[in-house]
Amino acid sequence: MFRRSLFRTSPPRFFYQTLTNEVTVALTAAGRRMILFCDHPLTRTDHLRLKVGDPVTAGQRIVPFSDASAYVVAPAAGRIQAVSPFAGDFGKSWTRIDLAVEDSGEVDPGFAAAAEQVSMETVRHWMSGLPGGLDLEAISGKEAPIETVVVAATESDLLTVSAQYVLRHRTRDVRQGIEALRQITGAQRVILAVGRDTVQGMGHVHAEVRGVSTVYPASAPGLMLREILGREVPSGTSTAKIGIAVVPVEAVAALGRSFAEKRLAMQKVVTVVDKSGRQSLFEVTVGTPVADLLATLEIQLETGDRLIAGGPMTGMCLYTDDYPVRPDTHCLMVQDAAAVGRVGSDPCINCGECVRICPARVPVNMLVRFLEAGEYETAAAEYDLFSCVDCGLCACVCPARIPIFQYLRLAKYELAVSRAAEAENA
Amino acid sequence: MPEAKKLIVSHAPFIHDGSSIAHRSGQVLLALMPAALAGIFRWGVPALGVIALSVSSAMLWELAFNKVARRPEGIADGNAAVIGLLLALLLPATAPWWLVIAGTFLAVVIGKQIFGGIGANPFNPVAVSLAILAVSWKQFLDFDAMLLTYDPGFVMIEPLTAAKAFGTEAAARFSSLDLLMGRQAGAIGAPFGLWLIVGGLYLVVSGVVRWEIPAAFLATLIVVAAAFHLVDPLRYAGPAFHLLTGYTLIGAFFLATEDSSSPVNFWPMLIYGAAGGLMTILIRNIGAYPDGVIYAVLVINMINPLVDKIRPRALGKVT
Ligand code: SF4
Ligand code: SF4
What is the CATH T-level fold of the domain A28-106, as seen in this structure? Predict the structure, then answer.
């Protein structure tokens, strides 16, 4: 995962994992229970239209609130078991819906009818929870007409191999997804971005194939576009702004399959990394509890362990394994209590390790002073906060063990909040 | 429901390369060891006494200040020990005890803590301390006077003082090999060029010190010294002499590279180092002091925030 030269005159390098035969592939976990997250806070119940005990059919589009358009699609038939609020990082809140699965064989016809039309309309109405993580805004073309679609078959973090697995085993779905995306976005150009070590043999995908460096974090969109297209995304904006939609390969495959089979694809590939670093690949329905995956592998969680959704560099700690596989849960990782490092209380010593490892050339040593002081506006205006591609490398090499990465994310969040408030008041 | 295990929740990233401030300090102490041992071997028990007193008093000042100022204790990070050892290696073996204790006070409290502690000092604490000592108690840093009792069997005149007074003729009495091996009058550790180079290179390859700073410092010092020597070979000693005398090597590898007061970007490091080499020779050749390293280091510390503004354009920034 990470290599350091004998002479430490250059920063260490971290590498993405290549999918090899050593990885146990495609286990499934039969969930008797599903957990769905609806992107709307459950603050008051008078607009809630769901009741415990309500039946749902597989593929049913559920709109839980009478005053909000947020929806979830039931991955299986069953009964509503519980509806509860869920608080995520940075004040984000969802409504969590627990579903007891009952196989009735009945399938909701709604999507089949909608899928006759391959359009943004259909995508928006049905696919916000598509496996792989589809950012609807990115392909909407709202900011600028989409000229290029980049299908990212690169990994999102170290240790995960999910995207490579999808590309290798769902090639037909990917091809169909690319066609659908061409139709939806009107993009002239479709590029398949794959790790440089697996670039061979991708001719049949019907897209231009480009190799991306395997040194982390080359697949961060900002860096990847610079590498494969020579384009830089102006800092603080999204790739959509320059007419490029970056779509994860798994979302492309799910999109293709959904339209081809007229049935919403719900299978998600998850790399599970156990305490010894051994990887296993799962193909499970989005919404399957993490506990089911761990049980399949007979992984025991002990007090003091960490359970991480999303990989060692950018992931998020879970409080419990009673949590679902979500559309963007590419990786789950269990870390032993003994491997859990400590955060320091030391101040920055200005050693510059962070500056030298930062792929976005952010002056982290200066930035961190302003972040600690909460001076986010200065951080953004003078110390390139928004050039940061959220890779976490700086925090990884900091000898003072400052939680730099958390500071960075917090600062971006705080600025987003205050700017949204400003826009509203203007 | 099965009994719930309490999981640890923390922030990404979940891996770390294992580095720590204490480890870095340890590496610096290790790198200074050869020169320190050579110093003890050469100057005997008095040198050992100064080193022990300096390291321990530096650590005690750190402890005391943190207590008084109610700051988190920083003694475990090893930085105070590094300051103590470095200061000792710059003092004569016969330095009186109170000078050592005053020196560590100046370094740890005045040079570092009042600015906010480790990482917040704009100047190298050891250089600050030595500069004040040299002004306040000049006679105790006069190596010729301080080392009168020693007769180790080589020319016991401080080379830079001799060269300042008598020009190249005096400098010619010292062979480069002697100077490199530390057969010269001087501080406890600073004269041992070979061991300082070994220690310095060790720090470079272990990633604690960046090569850019010492390389630019020494290269510029050599070039400028050579230029002076060319212009007036009788008055100005040659580059090898300047390289191997005074605080040059300890300054280039250990003083100028102090993290907090030095730049982190590539070009700034080169400019900063080069300025140090240039200033050293200017002070030595046309300034009032025989050795200019301490003042050169303070000057480059001062320009550091300015130079370090030169940095590459960040990703996605439109100028
Ligand atoms: S600032 Fe840190 S997290 Fe952001 S791009 Fe640089 S190294 Fe990565
Ligand atoms: S790596 Fe940590 S201690 Fe070093 S300059 Fe960056 S923030 Fe400061």
Answer: OB fold (Dihydrolipoamide Acetyltransferase, E2P) (2.40.50)
Contact between B17 and A396 using a beta-carbon 8 Å cutoff: yes
Dist CA A261 CA A270 (whole Å): 23
In whole angstroms, give the CA distance from residue B23 to residue B17. 12
Identify which of B15, B24, B207 has the shortest CB distance to residue A396. Answer: B15
- In sequence order, the β-bridge partners of residue A38 are A95
pLDDT by position in tens, chain A (length 426): 667 776 777 888 999 988 887 777 767 776 789 999 999 998 877 788 888 999 999 999 999 998 889 999 998 899 999 999 998 888 889 999 999 998 777 788 899 999 999 999 999 999 999 999 998 988 988 888 999 999 999 999 999 999 999 998 999 999 999 999 999 999 999 999 999 887 776 767 778 899 999 999 999 999 999 999 999 999 888 898 899 999 999 999 999 999 999 999 999 999 999 999 889 999 999 999 999 999 988 898 988 899 999 999 999 999 999 999 999 999 999 998 777 667 777 899 999 999 999 999 999 999 999 999 999 999 999 999 999 999 999 999 999 999 999 999 999 999 999 988 888 887
A337 contacts in B (CB within 8 Å)? 8
Sequence-distant (6+) residues with CB within 8 A of A285 are A31, A34, A75, A76, A266, A267, A268, A325
Task: State if pTM tops 0.95.
Answer: no
Min CA distance, B73 vs chain A (Å)?
10
DSSP letters for A93-161: EEEEEEEEE-----B-SHHHHHTTS-SHHHHHHH-TT-TT---HHHHH-SSS---EEEEE-S-SSTT--
CATH 3.10.20.90 applies to domain A266-339: yes
Shortest CA distance from B1: residue in chain A: A322
**Tell me, which fold does domain A112-261 have in CATH?**
Rossmann fold (3.40.50)
A394 in ligand 1 pocket by Cβ < 6 Å?
yes
* Chain B residue numbers touching A400 (CB-CB < 8 A): 21, 119
* Cross-strand pairs, A48: A65
Cβ(A108) – ligand 2 distance below 6 Å: no
Distance from CA of A376 to the nearest CA of B (A): 17
B contacts of A348 (beta carbons < 8 Å): 119
Which secondary-structure segment (H or E) carries A306?
strand A306-309
Give distance in angstroms: CA of B18 to centre of ligand 2.
Answer: 14
B120 part of contact set with chain A, CB < 8 Å: yes
A&B contacts, CB < 8 Å: 174
